[in-house]
Structure formats: C-alpha cells, structure tokens
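Deliverable D4.2, example record:
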Amino acid sequence: MKPTVSLAAMMVAVAALSAGCASNSSYPQATDYSSQADISTYGTVDSIRVVRVDPATSGAGAVAGGLLGALAGSQIGSGSGRTAATAAGAIGGAVIGNRVEENRNMPRDVYQISVRLDNGDYRTINQDSAYDLRVGTRVRMVDGRVYRY
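Output generated by the structure prediction step:
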C-alpha cells in the first residue's frame, strides 16, 4: 500500500474513533432517581453549592495519539528498524495523546443545586451556571437542568 493511501486510511480511522468516543457531557451528572417518563418537574431550590468535579479521561486521546504515532513511525527506516520506529511512535503518541486529553479535561467548579420537588422528593443537579437561581426560587427541571420558572 502506498504511504499516502495508508496515511488517509489512518486519518479516517482516528476520526471515527474520536467521534465514537466523544462525550457530550462535560461533567458528571448527579443521580436521578425518577423514571425516564418524568420529562419535567417543578420545585423550589433548597440549596446551591459550588463543588469541584474531576472529569475522567475516556482513553480516546491515547488511542488517537498511538495511531498517529505508529503511522509517523512507520514512515521511518526499513525492515526491523521500521518496526521499532513504529512501536516507539505508537507508545510515544499514546502518552502524548493521553496528556493532551487530561489537560483538556481539567477539574472545574460546577454548581450543585438541590431542589425540593412539589411531591416532597429531593433532586440534586450539577450544572455549569446558576445565573438567576437563589435559595427559595421556584424552578422547573427539564432534561437534567434547572431553570427559573
């Protein structure tokens, strides 16, 4: 296979892996004890706290870095030297890719909002903003987020 064709194939594979491992959630959500049929709920803010969350890495950075490193290493030398360069490139790329992902997912502060529902239950939601929310504010919960009602 020509080097340009293998390069294109590896780029497509990396893009597919990155898209498949991507997450829309930027921080962990609190446990929701309601059924999935409960789409929206009304209540009152009971407390608001700022908490630090430490998002976990998915491993996608290490995989993508390893693939790119192996691809780059395979372009060096020939025979057993090429094999060694490919292995070294894969290992180095995986380490660098994991570091990049860790730096991207730095710990951050989120608002942990405790809501007393109209039926007497409590829910705790983590979200990135509590702009217009205060203790005692009437709220509506939709899809895991709290909105002023």
